[in-house]
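We recall that each integer encodes one residue's backbone shape. We quote one record:
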Amino acid sequence: MLSSLSIQNYALIDELSIDFSSGLSIITGETGAGKSILLGALGLVLGNRADSTTLKDMSKKCIVETQLLIKDYGLKTFFEEVDLDYEDHTIIRREILPSGKSRAFVNDTPVTLSVLSELRSKLIDIHSQHQTLQLSDNDFQLEVIDALAKNQTRVHQYKIELKKYNTLQSELSSLVNKQREANQQYDYNLHLYEELNAANIEADEQEALEEKLDKVNNVEEIKASLAEALQITSNEDIGVQNLLYILEQKLTKIAGYSKEYRELSDRISSVKIELDDIVSELEHANEAVDFDPYEAEQLNDRLQLLYSLQKKHYVNSNIELIRILEELSEKVAQVEGGEEIILAKEQEIQKIQQHIDRIAKEISDARKKELPKLISTLESLLGDLGMQHARFSIEVEMSNEYFANGKDRLSFLFSANKGGSFGALKKVASGGELSRIMLAIKKVLSEHTKLPTIIFDEIDTGVSGEISNKMAHIMQQMSRQMQVITITHLPQIAAKGSQHYKVFKEEVNGTTTTRLKQLSSDERIVEIAEMLSGKNISDSAITHAKELLN
């Protein structure tokens, strides 16, 4: 429940702080005194959008803070889910800076407005006159039915499964579109793939082929050079190999005379060994050189194929061709295996669809079961509120469509007069009738939902006299299970409150300021008498006010 509200620098409020109690609280005040400002400030701290125009003094920040007692409402799990510290006495603070930026805190932890709005839905229901229009909204009507049917868990599970279903449908649509595009390119991609695959391209092949072709194309020069090299190294008279042999013999003879000569001899021996190895390889290379015009043609053809494929695919290397081959393989496989993937996705959708349908059927059955009770309860409450001939015709029927809260189509019709035909609420009910219907519905909801606080903003619009007494009685009944705060202009309702607050304006240093105070017993008599007779309070109004309070 709402235990306190403090406001600084908001609209016409300099600074205001008020404590609230359980039961039925009444807020009254003249038109324009600032009752809407209070609701605006409360809405602000609970997540409504705001900007710097709400600041009374543009040089200071606006602070709205509320303390709520939430011990008995099972909110610990929610606090854990959104990573907030849970406190039985939870404090919510909202700050609006002169720049227009805002900050929100729950128990001194910064939160986003979306989290704040979600928390608000679990704490306070602020009923404004505008909200009466919700009566004609199917989602709101189903929410009322679901409260009686205890469908909250089923609807929550349905929404989870529906989200999965919609995600899968989106994935399937994407797969189908990709498959369509892939099919259109399949023949061309398959041709390119088979062409590249048949080429058996290797990553380092091109460089080896170019080197080999270069050798084949210059075979005569290579053969001549190798022959000359062998002549220079192995000629019996002047060859380097023979001369080196003679040199080795000369140094071997004197190697025993000193370490220096021995080292020179060893080095020459090493050179001779290396040269012998070189001569052997020159002989092998010379024997291997053989001009084969067919080989040259094969090498050239292979290189021309690689050059042609690179040019065709706008690349400069075999590595890039291999990457393109892999991409084409995936595209071809996507088409050839795409139908299986799509079929698997459709089967997955079908499975979750069956699960959703089962939950939707449970939701619908529970709703249908509660409809007679809801109709009877509403008609009874409206009878107490002076609408003895009010009748409802409420039906739910399962469709093939998936809606946000089930598969039901709802027919929620109303007749206010005896023998009258049924019609949509917004077409056949007057403003005063809508107010009474909404109060009856809120009464039903209060018995089946665990909401800490409800605030009625002039729900008594369009009613008076004995009906207002009946409305006040219903609010009193509701206040036994939850905190009820009512803004009203009717003395009959104002007199039924456990506590009474008055909103008023006063001028301070030439500036109009909105104030709020809790009235004492004597002040309540005066306030209600003024509501009965105006500023000039008569003795009979005082007497009547006392009677109402008693």
User: Anything to note?
Assistant: The longest helix spans residues 318-384. The chain has a mean pLDDT of 87.
